Every structure is written in structure tokens, then in C-alpha cells.
Amino acid sequence: MSVDVKYRTSASAVGGRDGSARTEDGSFEVKLSTPKELGGAGGEGANPEQLFAAGYSACFIGALKVAGAQLKLKVPAETRVTATVGIGPRSEGGFGITADLAIDLPGIDRDEARKLVDAAHQICPYSNATRGNIDVGLTIV
After folding, report:
1. Which pLDDT band, with edges at 50, 70 and 90, does 1 fall under?
2. Checking CA distances to 7, which of 20, 23, 58, 90 falls within 20 to 30 Å?
3. Pairing of strands 136-140, 95-104
4. What CATH fold (topology level) applies to the domain 48-140?
5. Topology of 1-46 in CATH?
6. What is the pTM of this model?
């Protein structure tokens, strides 16, 4: 597989799950905290799973818009994608993640919504990156 890269960025983290992370251009900076469920203290910081959920949900909306243009279906401005990301030990060892997307396309017929979601799942870079690696659930709400 080859990718014709049109945009590239980078971010750095220090201190791991209880440190901080920031983008190279400084447009985004976040304090990190390990959730209590993973043995951490919790706290006010975000965690990598939250950041992944935010990125996946935003990217999937972009993919819905591309799919909508291809299918000649208007994606409502009020469209909402909620990504729920889970993390835990894998039976094979190490840790793994799961992702579930709840897609709300107000005013769109259920059959059209299914076509949009299925097409977007083939377009979205996050979906393509995770396909075959993690379980991703797609629910139309």
C-alpha cells in the first residue's frame, strides 16, 4: 500500500501517560493522566484513548461528507459521531483497544444512512488504519 502524503504533522510526549503532549507547531498541548481503571491516579489530564476517540470521531465526519458527495446525499450540519474507545489486556498478551462509533445523521433515511456509514468506513483514514487490527463497531443512532 502506498500513500500520496498531502499533509504531515508530528507531536511529542514526555512523561508517558502521566506527562504531557504537544504538537510541533504548539497549536495543541495537553496534560496527560492515567485513568484509575488502568492503575493510575486519574486526575484532570486527558489520556491517549480520549485523544484517539476525538480524532476518530472528527475524521469520520469528514469521511461522511466525502461519501455524501460521492453518493449525492447531503450530510446534515448537525451530524454527530461519538467514538467510544476501550483499552485492556489482550488474550494474546499486551494491551489492545476497541472502538465503537455511534453515528447520528438527523433527518436521513435509515437505508441512506447505512450507505453513507458503510462508504465512510471505507474512506476514513482511521478506519483504514484500524481495519483488521481492532474491533470497530458502527451503530446508526
Report:
1. confident
2. 20
3. parallel
4. GMP Synthetase; Chain A, domain 3 (3.30.300)
5. N-terminal domain of TfIIb (2.20.25)
6. 0.94
